[in-house]
Amino acid sequence: MSTGRIIVVGGGIAGVSAAMAARDEYPDAGITLFAREPYPFYNKIALCAFITGKKRQDHLYFHGADGLHDYGIDARWGEDVESIDPGKNSVISKDGRQWGYDRLILATGAVPTIPVIDGIDNKGVFTLWSLADAIGVREALAGAGTVAIIGGGVLGVETAVELANAGKKVIIFEAGDSVLPLHLDRTSSGMFGEFLREKGIDTRLSTPAERLETRTAGLRVIHGGGGLDADMVLLMAGASADTRLARSAGIECGDGIIVDSHMNTGVAGISACGNCAQFDGEHNFLWNPARAQGEIAGANAFENRREATSTPLVIHLKMPEMPLFVCGRSISSERGDMVIDDRSGRAYRALRFDDRYRLKSAIFLFETDGFHEIEKIIRRALPVPGDLVDAGDIDGIVKTHSLPPGDDDYRSSGWVCRMCGYSHEGDYPPEICPVCSVGKDQFLAA
Ligand SMILES: Cc1cc2nc3c(=O)[nH]c(=O)nc-3n(C[C@H](O)[C@H](O)[C@H](O)COP(=O)(O)OP(=O)(O)OC[C@H]3O[C@@H](n4cnc5c(N)ncnc54)[C@H](O)[C@@H]3O)c2cc1C
Question: From ligand 1's centre to the CA of 422, what distance in Å?
Answer without folding.
Answer: 15
